Amino acid sequence: MKKLEGDFEGFVKQAENAAERIRNWVAQGEFIDIFTHNDADALSSAGIIAAALRREDARFRVRSLNRIDDFIELFNSGYVEAKCIIFTDMGSGYTSELLPLLGNRSVAIFDHHEPVQASLPPEWVHVNPHQYGFDGAREISASGVSYFVAKAMNPANIEYSPIAVVGALGDLQDKNTQRRLHGLNEYIVAEAVENKLLEVKDDIILYGRTFRPLHVSLAMTTSPYIPGISGNEQAAYSFLTSLGIGVKEGEQWRTLADLSEEEKKKLYNGLIEYLVSKNLPTTIANELIGKTYDLVKESVWTYLSDAREFATLLNACGKSGKAWAGILVAMGARSEALEEAQRILEEYRLSVARAMDYVSQPGVLEELSHIVVLKGGDVIDYRQVSSVASILSSSGLLPPDKPLIALANAGKTVKISARASKQLVDRGLNLGAILSRLGAQFGGKGGGHNIAAGAEIPYDHMIKFLAELDKTVGENVASSKGEVTHND
């Protein structure tokens, strides 16, 4: 593991301060409200904190929100009565909005989004990697932050280290040239491996690689998205047979785990040839090679064995408005909770598949001078537009020098999910900062990371907002020399 570049001791000390604060709340018999977002990292982080509180016999409740405005609405309606409140995977970018509401309450924020500068009351504790020189977009997610706090509360909570890995993978923090976690995430991985909770290997990263038929596994893989194969089992079957890779052994379907190393090389090289024939970037195939993270204590034929698939299940629950099922599974519940989560996942996959079919229609993607706009309208569920944006951004179908701006209607507002390539971020593009500033300018809210961010803008302001966003991105990127290519 590489040497950590940030202030590790300072970060751990702040996590310990937060743990001590929570232990005091529990000792005083306080009821604790936990609020989190609705994606895989959010549900993982809330699950870790909730499980840690359960271990201390604390009184608590967990709620998942689509946005910070939902919390403000709950508060103003009198539904936030707890004196002690924890935010996971949200809060760092909205302290100025939260302070007037919660200034006289005890608040803990465990987040990895870029924080706004604000002087916080002594009753508040804020744990955020950016404050200690770590990149919250790449090196640790909210689940990792929550894990450090939980472990400081009780060393036995190291059992939730794999859930922190699940959250980081759910936030796509392995999206680098090696498809592996690094930074503080790598520290958590090492602890999980040392305690025989996680197994890490180099392999081809396919969805359901340990238990699904090979052609089904290939077709179900959407990270990266392989145009013409992802979502199409027949096409995946034909592709494999054209390579001379047997999909059956007698009457049994073969899985990726059944392939020899020679067959895996044939699959990889075949994918490169396929991409070249379709005039698609070969980097898509590179994204299929990397580290796999397997939860040792989970059955290999479930969605929970592979940490990336676990993250997809949690994301499905959160984006389908049924976060409770995902949080329970993250806390360790199985049986009925897992069965419900699996049912939700199957419905979610169908919904996302329909959205991807819609994206392929003429006119849905509009290329402006400096951005590409996905016009989801009412067709794409606003709760799932971020998932569609992530899939599309890995497809090679977009110009590498323009960020994707995905839109979906959400009542009187438009939900925006933005994605940039690593090359653009390395050149200085910061989508989170841009959407934060423009969101406020146009009567909405925005924020997030440099590489992935979101916003909500009033519907009536969208035309002017997109024009200003296109202009701002162009000015930002123009300040850096050189071109961005698919193979940078």
From TrEMBL:
Keywords: Exonuclease, Hydrolase, Nuclease. Pfam families: DHH_CID (PF21763), DHHA1 (PF02272). The keyword Nuclease applies. Signal peptide: none annotated. Residues 206-289 form the DHH-CID domain. One of its GO terms (molecular function) is nucleic acid binding. Residues 401-474 form the DHHA1 domain. InterPro entries: DHH_CID, DHH_sf, DHHA1_dom, SSDNA_exonuclease_RecJ. PANTHER family: SINGLE-STRANDED-DNA-SPECIFIC EXONUCLEASE RECJ. This is Archaea-specific RecJ-like exonuclease. It comes from Caldiarchaeum subterraneum.
